[in-house]
Amino acid sequence: MNKTFKISYSLKNTYRVNTILYSLKQIPLIRRILPQELYRDRDLKIFANIVSGILEFIKAFLGKFLYFLLMVTLPLLIYETGEKREIFLHIFILLTLIGAWLNTYIFNPTKDKYYALILLGMDAKEYALVTYSYEMLKILIGYLVFGLIFGLNCGLLVWQCLMLPFAAAGMKLTVVSYALWDYERTKAAVSENQVGAKEWIAIIVLLLAAYGLPFTGVVISETVSVVLLLCGILAGLMSMQKIWRFKEYREVYQQLLTEYMGQVADAKRAVKRQSEKVIQIDNRQGSSRKGFEYLNEIFIRRHQKILWKSSKRIAEICLGVVCVLALGIWFMPEYKEIVNRLVLTNLPSFAFVMYFVNRGTGFTNVLFMNCDHSLLTYSFYKRPECILRLFRIRLWEIMKVNLLPAAVIGAGLALLLYLSGGTAEPVNYLVLIVSMLCISMFFSVHYLTIYYLLQPYNAGTEIKSGTYRIVVTVTYFFCYYLMRLKMSTFAFGLGTVIFCVAYCIIACALVYKLAPKTFRIRA
């Protein structure tokens, strides 16, 4: 057992360490100082192992902390009646029932299980028992620590808090035991990721019962909750025998992992088929354009559906929202002042809205899958002058796609400002429209630039660039930060215009200088 645990943990840790080292290698500034024999460097491996250990600790306990905080404790603040202790136990028990069905671990096919059992041929029963025991141990420790912290804070007695981890583990053991018994009966192993209609209905009912019943004053009484926790513990103890004596773990994993790898391959093929499906063959006469202009025109013609469909749909939704708000102001004039103040002082918040409206990632994904994936194999395609020329052509196309919803949002804000009482400075109407257009242009330039400078896709169209993920994440948090920024409409509008122009100039310079080296298919 100890040997199996060491091998399984070492396998998972090695996979994680190699992922960390690979991610470091993708960061331009760090890549230059890393040694050539990256995976043989002892110091780097020690560093990666430390990071891996930290990630394992975070994975083990952060989720449980957030679960107790966000799912169990914070909802107590919205209930005006009822005892906190009773509602805490009520929510915990019902959510634990959901978690027991959705997260069995044994019936969750993963790559590390595929490597261990299929490629390395490890003993399936030993592997299942050892890794499952490790997961149960993390649950016991995590629930014990945070159950005591949050439970005592909500008025639970110490002995009640001590029951929480064992009841949660017991319910999970019971569900796994039932699933193993069901496999012996049907010879069909069902992945925990395959949640059917009946299961979804049960989950919705339990969620409504967990959070909805306390509003009506109906909760599971403290006595009944304690009895249910005790039943969960006893059921878990009785289920351990079935889990220990089960002999067909190899067959279960063989079925689950074969289906899992097949689903992964099917998903990739489905993405490819979907990308091919949206291509529209244009039988019209040829174009008078030549070179890259002709290439781009053919590409845009064939991808009109995927490029413009979502943009038009978003514009229609935004127009609908504006109409609803306009009608709301018309029929409820008491809200005019609030709307007016929000439009004039909270314009930076709309940068976050534009972040989600922008179609930059979808555009670059289609570019790579249906164009650059093939053309990047030719050297002429990576010459600086060719890259910059095609970059400008594509930038104009992506701007047109993104400007449609941006124009609707900008015009809608100007209309809402007018209907809500207007402004003493008429220039603000123009600023609202121009600032939305500039933010849209920024995102268009931004996503196309990082596509050329970081080109995140490999030959299988999978994102392999850690730096690309970091940049996208930083962009998200920057836009989120702008929501908290209070600035006058004119000042923000002027700032967006200046920033957008400067960013476009810098982006073109960087693409011309660096893209010939960075714009390539990743290994």
Topology:
Elements: H1 2-25, H2 28-31, H3 42-73, H4 84-102, H5 111-119, H6 124-153, H7 158-186, H8 197-216, H9 222-245, H10 249-277, H11 291-302, H12 304-331, H13 336-345, H14 350-357, H15 360-375, H16 384-419, H17 427-454, H18 466-482, H19 489-518
Helix pairs in contact: 1-3, 1-6, 3-6, 4-7, 4-8, 4-9, 5-10, 6-7, 7-9, 11-16, 12-16, 13-16, 14-17, 16-17, 16-19, 17-19
How would you describe what is shown here?
The chain contains 19 helices and no strands. It folds into two domains: 2-13 and 80-256, no CATH class; 291-518, no CATH class. Helix 3 crosses helix 6 (124-153), helix 13 (336-345) packs antiparallel against helix 16 (384-419) and helix 17 (427-454) packs parallel to helix 19. The mean pLDDT is 81. The chain has helices spanning 2-25, 28-31, 42-73, 84-102, 111-119, 124-153, 158-186, 197-216, 222-245, 249-277, 291-302, 304-331, 336-345, 350-357, 360-375, 384-419, 427-454, 466-482, 489-518. 77% of the residues lie in helices and 0% in strands. The longest helix is centred in the last third of the chain and has 36 residues, at 384-419. It is globular, with a radius of gyration of 28 Å. With 523 residues, it is an all-alpha fold.
